[in-house]
Amino acid sequence: MAARKGAAKSNTSREELLSYYREMLLIRRFEEKAGQLYGMGLIGGFCHLYIGQEAVVVGLEAAAEEGDKRITSYRDHGHMLACGMDPKGVMAELTGREGGLSKGKGGSMHMFSKEKHFYGGHGIVGAQVPLGAGLAFADKYKGNGRVTFAYFGDGAANQGQVYETFNMAALWKLPVIFVIENNQYAMGTAQKRSTSTPELHTRGLAFGIAGETVDGMDVLAVKAAGEKAVAACRAGNGPYILEVMTYRYRGHSMSDPAKYRTREEVQKMRDERDAIEHVRELLIQGKHATEDDLKAIDKDIKAIVNEAAEFSKESPEPALSELWTDIYA
Amino acid sequence: MATEILMPALSPTMEEGKLAKWLVKEGDKVTSGQIIAEIETDKATMEFEAVDEGTVGRILVAEGAEGVKVNTPIAVLVEEGESVSAAPAPVATPVAAAAPAPTPAAAPVAAAPVAAPAAPVADGSPDWPAGTPMKTMTVREALREAMAEEMTRDEDVYLMGEEVGEYQGAYKISQGLLDQFGDKRVIDTPITEHGFAGIAVGSAMAGLRPIVEFMTFNFAMQAIDQIINSAAKTLYMSGGQMGCPIVFRGPNGAAARVAAQHSQDYAAWYAQIPGLKVVMPYSAADAKGLLKTAIRDANPVIFLENEILYGRSFEVPDLPDFTIPFGKARVWREGTDVTLVSFGIGMSHTLDAADKLAAEGISAEVIDLRTLRPIDYDTVIASVMKTNRCVTVEEGWPVASIGNHLSATIMERAFDWLDAPVINCTGKDVPMPYAANLEKLALVTSDEVVAAAKKVTYR
């Protein structure tokens, strides 16, 4: 992997680096396994993998405090794992089983955890943006000092409801961080073909919302930017926009033939900009860990993912009576 | 240990495909994520990545093989140090999937639990105790009082919408609430229904109890994705974890001379959605008692009001905490010859028609459904079993109307009791015209109800 600026002179502690490495690797291995289970027909429907974008959620989770909320789109597995939701429950939801976080009734795109303050998992592009501002509205109403991370993609950034929300969030000074995960493709449409002005972090300027862009393949940079955004939000300054430049290695969903970009483009990102390799390099070069240490972590992660996969296969399909439950509270 | 690589399913519907190209050969090392093959489905050529690391021990299905079934082993990976020859021998032709995906439960499940009791029992209990002191009140005042009482009762209840605060409500429903509760709880929004409905739904998911006022329900179409996809479905999609206690309320249906975009009845639209509750009151007592119930409900409630009814006065029980349960129709008038079923503004025409019918010696029983989800089927069926004839009345369009649904239910549950086909009186199947004479023609009238009642009673 090509050296990147500042790679060797990080002040980040060994423990922190190791935890980022673990968490990002968990997401990657989990997603690879999900892809495999999809291939075997155990996961159905739509399945949007987060491979390549791991540093975004792992960096931002490192900037969050207990009680802060998060909400995202349908590319949500990484967010759930990063906020501590059980990989077994996530995988079993993907396979549509009773042990899934939504009892098998939500699927890949629709999972939630009150305990981890994760509010979904939303399948309609952009819908989670006003919902996220609503979570922040509730926090402000209750005066509890919490902030919300409302994640959406560069595709959703062109949705009308996003701008309605920017207006109200700024007007009412809602403690919400709008995280634009810019992976450069809205499904198969490259950003330059869908978006009149590419600098998405400036999209809030008309509403008086500050924004910045950050390298989403560098978990330390994401964390630093996240901390700044959280501090601004918690201080009562209203919303903040973080445009996180990232890249998805896999297709939009499992049935994406990826004809809109070259194999070389994807390979170049993997080879030169991979977020996990970056942390791996910091760990090795900084003599924080040996190859053997990292191999041991890889093994642990593999075991966690395999356990989740086994659970997701063994957990039974939901009882037929479940068809009729949870329609009304 | 050797790991089999299986032919992957690369779309929700793929059952077999062509192994177009191998990008690795036997003996090659692969890493997870590496593209190892190209596979052609009926839709596209897809790249196939390795999940596990290892060395390609054997390639079991040769390049160019067509009709390779999903889950057929196509190659074997061996681990470091493992001998390649340990891998199983190649198979000549693609074999059928060894482990087919679990098939979805095929057992048919009975349709919605509308068990058909032979003789349904209508809940005829009174909405308030006999002897309760009454006061005269408009629907407008009743709605305002319901909100004020519930906001006093629960700090988490707030009102949001266009002109609900300083303007005192576009139709004056929220008059005085800003002064009483302050701008933290009575919130004027910009004219952006999609956005503020979404914000309100999000706040409900986080535990607040919003009342969203749409200036009219016509504008709620801008927000209908948040109402249906976010508010109504989340509880189910979360396996019961994440509820959404919220009320969407405002005037619905035709007002007067505001033409097509501002004159539409959404009763049937929302009544179709599992996860929503739908209320459409006629009287002031029902407006008050049902709105209080709606605000306390743990689910999203669509509360359809009517501009023309806002100023009408009714007797309302003078009780400190008066609520009406959902799913309980009200029999306004008992009768023996024909059952007239309506709700909301339709009740106005229906009661008028019942008076006219009585003058001609036809005794009509008049039922106000009050809530459209849940619907009190038992009261309707019990009445039809008594009168053997039924006319439904609503302002909405005829296709897929509430009346259509009632007709089907009556046919299923009381077919043998019917002495005539059920007639649905509805608005006409046209966009609402502006011209006064045409608008009048487009709306359902009491004369049409009278004619229908005569037809089913063969008079």
From TrEMBL, chain A:
It catalyses: N(6)-[(R)-lipoyl]-L-lysyl-[protein] + pyruvate + H(+) = N(6)-[(R)-S(8)-acetyldihydrolipoyl]-L-lysyl-[protein] + CO2. Residues 23-319 form the Dehydrogenase E1 component domain. InterPro entries: DH_E1, PDH_E1_Alpha_Subunit, Pyrv_DH_E1_asu_subgrp-y, THDP-binding. Its EC number is 1.2.4.1. Pfam families: E1_dh. CDD domains: TPP_E1_PDC_ADC_BCADC. Keywords: Oxidoreductase, Pyruvate, Thiamine pyrophosphate. The pyruvate dehydrogenase complex catalyzes the overall conversion of pyruvate to acetyl-CoA and CO(2). It contains multiple copies of three enzymatic components: pyruvate dehydrogenase (E1), dihydrolipoamide acetyltransferase (E2) and lipoamide dehydrogenase (E3). Heterodimer of an alpha and a beta chain. This is Pyruvate dehydrogenase E1 component subunit alpha. It comes from Albidovulum sediminis.
From TrEMBL, chain B:
Residues 2-78 form the Lipoyl-binding domain. PROSITE patterns: BIOTINYL_LIPOYL (PS50968), LIPOYL (PS00189). GO terms for molecular function: pyruvate dehydrogenase (acetyl-transferring) activity. The keyword NAD does not apply. Pfam families: Biotin_lipoyl, Transket_pyr, Transketolase_C. Its EC number is 1.2.4.1. Keywords: Lipoyl, Oxidoreductase, Pyruvate, Thiamine pyrophosphate. It catalyses: N(6)-[(R)-lipoyl]-L-lysyl-[protein] + pyruvate + H(+) = N(6)-[(R)-S(8)-acetyldihydrolipoyl]-L-lysyl-[protein] + CO2. SMART domains: Transket_pyr (SM00861). It is an enzyme of class 1 (oxidoreductase). The keyword Metal-binding does not apply. Its cofactor is thiamine diphosphate; (R)-lipoate. The pyruvate dehydrogenase complex catalyzes the overall conversion of pyruvate to acetyl-CoA and CO2. Heterodimer of an alpha and a beta chain. This is Pyruvate dehydrogenase E1 component subunit beta. It comes from Albidovulum sediminis.
